[in-house]
Amino acid sequence: MTARPIRQILHAIEQSEGAGARVRRSIGTPSLRNLSPFLMLDHFTIGKGAGFPDHPHRGQETITYLLSGGVDHEDFAGNRGTIGPGDLQFMTAGRGIMHAEMPHENEDGAPNVGMQLWVDLPRALKMCEPRYRDLRAEEIPLVKTDEGRVEIKVISGQSHGVDSVRDLAYTPVWLLDVTIRPGGTVRQILPTGWNAFAYTLAGTTVFGGGEQTKVVDEFYNVVFEQEGDLVEAFVPEGEGAGKEARFLLVAGQPLDQKVVQYGPFVLNSQEEVYQALMDYQTGSNGFEKSRNWQSEIGKRMAA
């Protein structure tokens, strides 16, 4: 079993997005446009008066993982929901969805923080019917290894003999939330040939095996080569050693298809993007319910 070499390390620099939100984007930037099947990765912070009001999507899936606070969701089909700390929402846009995602106003004034990952849909499923699946924090299996120094939330996929509750996306994706205390090491096997990355949320982590190691601080995306069997990471202990580290380890099955993206529309050709724009503007071919629709939660922006 060999550790995957590191291909690229990207610093996720904070920028403005949506209406008053702040995001650290790594995938979906000039440095890493696409990492099939992944289209975009945002580490978002949204506070009072900010959010993502009514907007459309076509051709992709989104996975939203809330780290703190709360976020409400509402779409033109009448679907509504709320996710809290540790909860996830998996949304398949398919042929078309129009929705809003708005933060809670927390009593202590704390912002709402989370991750949103955009996953490409296979060509044959681009025009499927939209759907949602929620996964609550209490449903996610927890694995402890290395004498308790490593904890892994198995959100999707497998880790150390434990399977996730269910598959939640059409495109095969593994999503693991890993915490390592000083002195701990994790060696996580991943499916052969899948693209994989680790996004660091806290602390300092050493990635790689043997002499090919890199020390990585928080808010970086570590992209691995496809070659190799597993991802290895550890946190040193002893004098001068850091505190515990946390990162998201994500892997997905690459799709052999062209990606043509215009904002929230992700298709396989320029013509399909033009068609998506026309369908949205005319309220047709999947966007019929968008005509004159306005979300209730989106009205908070005008309040």
UniProtKB/TrEMBL annotation:
The keyword Chaperone does not apply. Pfam families: Pirin, Pirin_C. Residues 21-119 form the Pirin N-terminal domain. Its cofactor is Fe cation. Belongs to the pirin family. Signal peptide: none annotated. GO terms for molecular function: metal ion binding. Keywords: Iron, Metal-binding. Fe cation binds at H55, H57, H99, E101. Binds 1 Fe cation per subunit. It comes from Penicillium diatomitis. InterPro entries: Pirin (IPR012093), Pirin_C_dom (IPR008778), Pirin_N_dom (IPR003829), RmlC-like_jellyroll (IPR014710), RmlC_Cupin_sf (IPR011051). It comes from the Eukaryota. Residues 176-285 form the Pirin C-terminal domain. This is Pirin-like protein.
